[in-house]
Amino acid sequence: MAKVTSATPGTFCWAELCSSDWAVAKPFYTQLFSWQFDDQPISRSADQPIGEDCYYTMLKKHQDDIAAMYQMMPDQVDANITSHWLAYIAVEDVDSKAVAAQTLGAQIIHGPHDVPGAGRMVMISDPGGALVALWQAEEHSGSQRVLEFNVPYWHELTTRDVQASSEFYTQLLGWQAEQMPMGEITYTLFNIDGKPVAGLMPMTDEWGKDTPAHCMIYFAVESCDAMVENTPHLGGQVCVPATDIEGIGRFAVLTDPSGAVFSIMESTSGDIEE
Question: How far is CA 30 from the centre of its chain?
């Protein structure tokens, strides 16, 4: 077990699902990953009472918070925004990082603003177009379990402009970039003091023009094949079947019943606990 009470600045600390159909997504994830949940009533707007069919659902492992999900707002559905996972990065000062992010070529999507009883956040679009959030913790530091099965394990940014994206994160967060050959591409590994914190994948022509830049969240699993087999039975789809990555492990890309894409990883590094 690897239980944590705080996140190191510059590391990913939280994962949040914005779902176009919360009612079908919640049972999918709780059954796939054996999570518990806590539905916390929230209000959508000033004219809609708290708890009127709207919840911020804390997803839990052994009753510890590890991620969250909520129902997409009606205006987002009308705008054809697809269900998606949003990854949060821990920072010490959200407001100064928001200013720095803009200076480095990012766009502010939402915030900075306070999340009562939890912390302060800002959502940005990096220079490559990937959405991420920056989180300044107060009462809630983020995921309370790491390096365990069925919790967020790895974060991989994808971009069509490797140089711009790499320069952005190294300057904004102090990450060190390490180039690694991977087949026909060069993979960028981001480190803090020699410890890997994220990866950067170049988007080639094979990705197509319609696939947006994004931050892919990988959940650690005990058996990639078992998860892939179970996904269709729970209403999800398999986008990329279980595939080996030499020296890393076995992964797959899945889609939940509401359309959100995520990945799973069966690591061979020996760093994952029960």
Answer: 17
DSSP track, 77-131: HHTTPPPEEEEEEE-S-HHHHHHHHHHTT-EEEEEEEEETTTEEEEEEE-TTS-E
Q: Which helix (H) or strand (E) element contains residue 240?
A: strand 237-245
pTM over 0.90: yes
Residue 44, pLDDT score: 58
Strands (E), 148-210: 152-159, 176-182, 185-192, 195-202
Q: How far apart are CA 57 and CA 16, in angstroms?
A: 10
> Which residue bears the tokens 């959030």?
133
Q: Are 147 and 66 in contact (CB under 8 A)?
A: no
| Residue 196: φ, ψ to 5° | -65, 135
CA distance 90 to 136: 6
213-242: b or e for each residue (b if 16 or more CB lie within 10 Å)?
bbbbbbbbbeebeebbeebeebbbeeeeeb
**In the β-sheet with 249-255, what is the strand arrangement from edge to edge?**
176-182, 185-192, 195-202, 152-159, 214-220, 261-267, 249-255, 237-245
Mean pLDDT per 10-residue section of the chain, whose length is 274 residues: 83 96 96 96 59 82 96 82 95 98 97 94 96 96 94 96 96 96 90 95 86 95 97 97 92 97 92 78
* Residue 32 C-beta-side C-alpha neighbours within 13 Å: 32
Contacting residues for 110 by C-beta, under 8 A, at least 6 apart? 122, 123
Q: Give the DSSP H or E segment for 27.
A: helix 22-32
